[in-house]
Amino acid sequence: MFALMVCASLTAVDGDTVKCDGQNLRDMGDGAPFVSGYDTPELGRNANCDRENALGKEAKKRMAELLMTPGLLIEDSGEIDRYDRPLVVLRLPDGRTIGSVMLAEGLAVEWRPGGDFDWCR
Questions:
Q1: What number of other Cβ atoms are within 10 A of residue 28's Cβ?
Q2: Residue 57: what pLDDT?
Q3: Type and span of the H or E element at 5
Q4: What is the rounded average pLDDT of the residues 57-81?
Q5: 119 belongs to a structural domain
Q6: Is there a domain that residue 92 lies in?
Q7: Structure pTM?
């Protein structure tokens, strides 16, 4: 069961993390807490290569665009990840999740526990 969250300020941190009124939130897309979700390339010093950083910038830009969608809903799962981020679903007015859009546009990969994608190849 998800609870709706309200944010006065919602910004993109990267392609799969947003900041709601100063609190980082981790988007799961169509996934479930600790079971499945999506992952996007890292940025800056967290990127493993220039290619990953460039892709990470693209993913962050697209996340920022999608966050501007009127009627966007933030569904809180009630779970928190190891980085102290609430696990949420960002849902567009047409019912799709931002995660599903990021996957369809090639800006993300599916995530499962233990999964680690190499953006540098």
A1: 26
A2: 97
A3: strand 3-5
A4: 97
A5: no
A6: yes
A7: 0.93
Range of the domain at 34: 3-111
SS3 64: helix
Residue 7: both structure tokens together: 């944010």
* CB atoms closer than 10 angstroms to residue 112: 10
Kindly report the CATH number assigned to the domain that includes residue 16: 2.40.50.90
Indicate the number of domains in the chain: 1
Q: Which two tokens stand for residue 64?
A: 């920022």
Q: Mean pLDDT score of the chain, rounded to an integer?
A: 94
Q: Which long-range contacts (CB under 8 A, 24 or more apart) does 89-95 make?
A: 89/2, 89/27, 89/28, 89/29, 89/30, 90/18, 90/27, 90/66, 92/66, 93/69
Q: Is residue 121 part of a domain?
A: no
Q: Specify if 102 maps to a domain.
A: yes
Q: Evaluate whether 102 touches 10 at the Cβ level (below 8 Å).
A: no
